């Protein structure tokens, strides 16, 4: 009894405190590193904007592909606890490798401030990012479910509140790290030469990941550890595979058709699994257009951050770094979620508008398209203030005449003569300094990005939160993890779409690329709206109850005597 009191506090398992702190530190680590990543590619590794964007979205896609691997390892082999610990070690090593990769002095043998062997830094960076993707993605489907495992069946209220606190820790870690790591990056550090301090910007997230691991292991003795019971995803895939194979074997007209193609799995799999798989595939079919939303949403950390580098971050008392503008999203999320739930949705309901989950998702996609239209309009204004640099195959020559007379310059091969007028006479001692501005500073203020962030955050609130809620409401009780993996997969595919569209479009103007993405999302939004119109909502609990009733009737029919005796025993009790 004493041990039980020690493990509980105010009706909650004490073990969840370790899980919440672990999640805060892990999210700080991930989002802190990701906030400065695209600028690290651009300014440290010297990659151009397009290649930096491509590698950034490849990394994010990997982070959302690996949850499937993590779920398989946890459910089929190691269990959630060992999976989280093992992959957290991989994660911590990856963050440490990223910090080491950004140390300028490591290969700066001539001490000129530039790495002499950039290939070493690239190799270390890619190794670190792959390890991070394995770690963060692998533990993603495990940690929240592991927290839910700590509660007893009668603690539904406490479990629900835990998930609210858990979600808050995610946003708190994201918000704080996105503020802090750009400040660390902007500092100057180094042994031989002072450069932007990427080792510190990556090192602090690495340290937080190590703290996350230590905190999680510290609570080991308090955790309720559920043993792996086999992965339902494997059974679902086997059921689908067998149905396809069996249908192909019986494709001739002599075999009667079945109501649904999955019914061809009935020779091997029970009716319940087949019915549950049908419900899952019905929702997964609706997921097909959703990656386009994430293709736009995740460009906050790439294209929108690069856009901010061409803007003025002077907010009076503080100087905002380009990568700090990403904090607008988590700040607005914290404000908008309760406002939308407590004010907007009730108002819509009072107006007698049937704002179904699928309609909410459609509106979210439309708003994300509008956000990119706003980004395009802003980009047009920014382009007016940017200097005109030489295009491919061109060069720029600037000649300053410090003499007292005109200088004649001849350019080959056209023998074109240009007269360069003298500046003020330099024949005498300098008595006056003259300031010349070759390239004007950025004049469009970063605050003009706030409208597009606001629209995109509104889109996220009605799209992402509703999407998860809809998925859970339409999923059978034992297949919610399958739909969770499918939802995360849409994020991965969305980032792959960015790679494909940005690579294939060949647009020279950034505003045109924003318009292209917006147009694609509007088109996909229309397709999804049509799909949603024909979708019929189901109640998985009702379907499963009907299956239970059918199974019960089947048992009565097969063995009525045994059921009669069981009923008699129950009535006597």
TrEMBL record:
Keyword terms of this UniProt record: Membrane, Peptide transport, Protein transport, Symport, Transmembrane, Transmembrane helix, Transport
Single GO BP term: protein transport
Region of interest: Disordered: 548-573
Bilayer topology annotation: Multi-pass membrane protein
Gene3D superfamilies attached to this UniProt entry: MFS general substrate transporter like domains (1.20.1250.20)
Gene designation per UniProt: SLC15A1
Organism: Coturnix japonica
UniProt-annotated location(s): Membrane
Alphabetical list of CDD domains matching this protein: MFS_SLC15A1
One example GO MF annotation: symporter activity
Protein origin, superkingdom: Eukaryota
PANTHER family to which the protein is assigned, alphabetical: OLIGOPEPTIDE TRANSPORTER-RELATED
Regions crossing the membrane: 54-72, 84-103, 118-139, 160-180, 200-223, 279-297, 331-348, 360-382, 450-470, 482-502, 514-535
InterPro entries reported in the protein's UniProt record: MFS_trans_sf (IPR036259), POT_fam (IPR000109), PTR2_symporter_CS (IPR018456)
Biased composition (Basic and acidic residues): 550-573
Family the entry assigns: Belongs to the major facilitator superfamily. Proton-dependent oligopeptide transporter (POT/PTR) (TC 2.A.17) family.
UniProt protein name: Solute carrier family 15 member 1
């Amino acid at each position: 009894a004493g041990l039980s009191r020690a493990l509980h506090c105010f009706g909650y398992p004490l073990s969840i405190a370790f899980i919440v702190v672990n999640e805060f530190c892990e999210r700080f680590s991930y989002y802190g590193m990701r906030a400065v990543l695209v600028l690290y590619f651009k300014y440290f590794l010297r990659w151009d904007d397009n290649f930096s964007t491509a590698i950034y979205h490849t990394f994010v896609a990997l982070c959302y592909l690996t949850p499937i691997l993590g779920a398989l390892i946890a459910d089929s082999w190691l269990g959630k606890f060992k999976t989280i610990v093992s992959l957290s070690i991989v994660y911590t090593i990856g963050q440490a490798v990223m910090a080491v990769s950004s140390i300028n002095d490591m290969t700066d043998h001539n001490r000129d401030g530039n790495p002499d062997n950039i290939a070493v830094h690239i190799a270390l960076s890619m190794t670190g990012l792959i390890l991070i993707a394995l770690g963060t993605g692998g533990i993603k489907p495990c940690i929240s479910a592991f927290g839910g495992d700590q509660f007893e069946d009668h603690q539904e209220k406490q479990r629900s509140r835990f998930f609210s606190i858990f979600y808050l820790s995610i946003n708190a870690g994201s918000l704080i790290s996105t503020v802090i790591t750009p400040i660390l990056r902007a500092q100057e550090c180094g042994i031989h030469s002072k450069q932007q301090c990427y080792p510190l910007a990556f090192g602090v997230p690495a340290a937080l990941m190590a703290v996350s691991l230590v905190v999680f292991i510290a609570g080991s003795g308090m955790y309720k550890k559920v043993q792996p019971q086999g992965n339902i995803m494997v059974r679902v895939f086997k059921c689908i595979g067998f149905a396809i194979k069996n249908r192909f074997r019986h494709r001739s007209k002599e075999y009667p058709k079945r109501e649904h193609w999955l019914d061809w799995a009935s020779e091997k799999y029970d009716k319940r699994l087949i019915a549950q798989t049908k419900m899952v595939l019905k929702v997964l079919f609706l997921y097909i257009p959703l990656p386009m939303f994430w293709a736009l949403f995740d460009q906050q950390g790439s294209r929108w951050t690069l856009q901010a580098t061409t803007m003025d971050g002077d907010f009076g008392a503080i100087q905002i770094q380009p990568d700090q503008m990403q904090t607008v999203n988590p700040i607005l999320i914290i404000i908008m979620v309760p406002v939308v739930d407590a004010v907007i949705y009730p108002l819509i309901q009072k107006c007698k508008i049937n704002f179904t989950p699928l309609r909410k998702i459609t509106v979210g996609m439309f708003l994300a398209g509008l956000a990119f239209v706003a980004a395009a309009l802003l980009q047009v204004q920014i382009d007016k203030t940017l200097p005109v640099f030489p295009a491919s195959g061109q060069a720029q020559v600037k000649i300053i005449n410090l003499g007292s007379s005109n200088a004649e310059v001849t350019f080959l091969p056209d023998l074109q003569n240009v007269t360069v007028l003298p500046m003020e006479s330099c024949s005498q001692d300098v008595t006056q300094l003259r300031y010349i501005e070759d390239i004007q500073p950025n004049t469009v203020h970063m605050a003009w990005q706030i409208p597009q962030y606001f629209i995109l955050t509104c889109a996220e609130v009605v799209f992402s939160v509703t999407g998860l809620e809809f998925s859970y409401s339409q999923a059978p009780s034992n297949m919610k993890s399958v739909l969770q993996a499918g939802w995360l997969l849409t994020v991965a595919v969305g980032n792959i779409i960015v790679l494909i569209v940005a690579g294939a479009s060949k647009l020279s103007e950034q505003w045109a690329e924003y318009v292209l993405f917006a147009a694609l999302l509007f088109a996909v939004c229309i397709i999804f709206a049509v799909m949603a119109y024909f979708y019929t909502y189901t109640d998985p609990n009702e379907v499963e109850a009907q299956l239970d009733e059918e199974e019960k009737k089947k048992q009565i029919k097969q063995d009525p005597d045994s059921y009669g005796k069981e009923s008699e025993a129950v009535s006597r009790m």
